[in-house]
Amino acid sequence: MRIVLGVGGGIAAYKVASLLRLFTEAGHDVTVIPTEASTRFVGTATWEALSGNPVSNSVFDDVHLVNHVRLGHEADLVVVAPATADLLAKAATGQAGDLLTNTLLMAHGPVLFAPAMHTEMWQHAATRANVEILRTRGAAVLEPASGRLTGADSGPGRLPEPQVIFEAAMALVQGRSDYQLPLAGRTVTISAGGTREPLDPVRFLGNRSSGKQGVALAVAARNAGATVRLLAAHMEVPAPAGVEVQRVETALELREAALAAAAGSDVVIMSAAVADFRPAEVSDTKIKKRDDTADPVITLVRNPDILQELVEQRNGSRSGAGQLIVGFAAETGDSQGDVLAYAEAKLQRKGCDLLVVNHVGTDKVFGQDSNAVVILSRAGSEPQEASGTKTEVSEAIIRRISFELNRVSPRA
After folding, report:
1. Which long-range contacts (C-beta less than 8 Å, at least 24 apart) are formed by 17-26?
2. How much of the chain, in percent, has pLDDT values that exceed 70?
3. What is the rounded CA–CA span in Å between residue 115 and residue 85?
4. Residues 399, 242, 149, 171: is their CA dihedral positive or negative?
5. CA distance 305 to 356
6. Topology agreement, domain 2-173 and domain 187-405
7. Predicted confidence (pLDDT) at residue 308 exceeds the cutoff of 80
8. 272 touches 194 (CB < 8 A)
9. pLDDT of res. 321
10. Please, are residues 373 and 387 in contact by the beta-carbon 8 Å criterion?
11. Rounded to the nearest 10 degrees, what angle do helices 251-262 and 306-315 cross at?
């Protein structure tokens, strides 16, 4: 496939090198057209080296090839990233002052814009009107991601991650109507890892969770177009790029963070392994092992049920209408019942919309790269099985969540 990749004059231009790599590694022939301003951030030599094609932004280079007409005619797809406020305005008003804007006017195939700018620019009435014009004319304009911007600013306006743009571009070319991605415009809060409950300054009660499944869920939600907030307890894997990360340690810290984050979220996924109990008392100094004293007795108290509180908060708030809450259950069977029996009881007790059930053990799930789960629905749908790598399981879970969000009443 022949792709024209237009690069706008924003600091996010450096991320587009990764997008170009995704296109070329997928076997596509890419011609990069940077604006003059963008070359102050990434030079033409970089684009030529990564694309294997000559790069120009002038209509007067190789005039005999009539590039300002030919490139748009021949392109199977045109992608503009970052699409700055200036570029969106020029495209919406049909300006043709350089090679990229000429190419946009001549494009016969699908066109995808991936905006990136400061929040105030994105939310300005002029920019919103330009986006609406472009969409009305058939162009695809992604919603920008939310998060840290240039300087200390934070909010909607970040360039979507290269993988997100790539998948949207491929969907657009295939003629699918989901080119804006199933979770575009949605905010998803995900907890991951295992909480640690301190006994003293050096010891804690913990669990075997590695955080791999939660991180994979964050990546899958991000790739589906969502703004992702990751509440990260102890994890053995790094947090992914392109998501907002808040670190927590204890169940009480996770509770506070989850209740606050959930208030502005469309979806809450509680995949963290939360300690059911914590020490009633925490020593300020290391507990010593001495021959002249008795062994310590550790009294435990229950931690709050965060999942149940999230459901109660949702149900008690008008702003929570339509919010989807997903719980995780790490279960083992015993003489009183099997894994699914305990999970079904937990689903009804907690009141969440979906419950993802793991059959855990010392050599199962925790720390592993693969997983097998059953997704239970409070609405009474048939249990859904998903297995494979944790990436594949996460993608199945996100697809199910997207389906539930598109139903008339997710909690009916």
Report:
1. 17/42, 17/46, 17/50, 18/162, 19/79, 19/81, 19/162, 19/165, 19/166, 20/47, 20/50, 20/51, 21/50, 21/162, 22/162, 22/163, 22/166, 23/166, 23/169, 24/50, 24/51, 24/52, 26/166, 26/170
2. 91
3. 8
4. negative
5. 17
6. yes
7. yes
8. yes
9. 77
10. yes
11. 20
| Catalytic-labelled residue, pool 102, 207, 223, 303 | 207
Q: What residue segments make up the domains of the chain, in order of their start?
A: 2-173, 187-405
> Is the pLDDT reported for residue 367 higher than 60?
no
Quick one: tokens of 48?
């030529």
Q: Which residues pair with residue 106 across a beta bridge?
A: none
The pTM of this model reads: 0.66
207 is catalytic: yes
The CA distance from 224 to 241, in Å, is 14
The DSSP call for residue 104 is H
Instruction: Choose which CATH entry (3.40.190.10, 3.90.226.10, 3.40.50.1950, 3.90.1170.40) describes domain 2-173.
Output: 3.40.50.1950
DSSP string, 130-189: HHHHHHHTT-EEPPPEEEE-STT-EEEEEPPPHHHHHHHHHHHHTT-TTTT-TTTT-EEE
Token representation of residue 374: 């059953």
Q: What is the mean pLDDT of the chain?
A: 88
- Which run of H or of E encompasses 326? strand 324-331
| 137 within 8 A of 234, measured Cβ to Cβ | no
Q: Look up residue 321 and give its two tokens.
A: 């209408």
C-alpha to C-alpha distance for 306 and 315, rounded to whole angstroms: 14
At 225-274, the pLDDT tens digits run: 888 999 999 999 999 877 899 999 999 999 999 999 999 899 999 999 99
Answer yes or no: are the C-beta atoms of 39 and 10 closer than 8 Å: no
Q: Order of strands, edge to edge, in the sheet holding 187-192?
A: 244-247, 227-232, 187-192, 267-270, 324-331, 354-359, 370-377, 384-389
Neighbour order of strands in the sheet with 140-141: 29-34, 2-7, 77-83, 111-115, 140-141
Which residues touch 151 (CB under 8 Å, ≥6 apart)? none
Where is pLDDT greater, at 296 or 67? Answer: 296
Both tokens of residue 369?
Answer: 């790269």
Query: Tokens 């791999």 sit at which residue?
Result: 212
In this structure, whether the domain defined by 187-405 belongs to CATH 3.40.30.10 is answered with no
* Cβ–Cβ < 8 Å for 268, 310: yes
| Residue indicated by tokens 């997903």 | 326
Structure tokens at 188: 């998803």
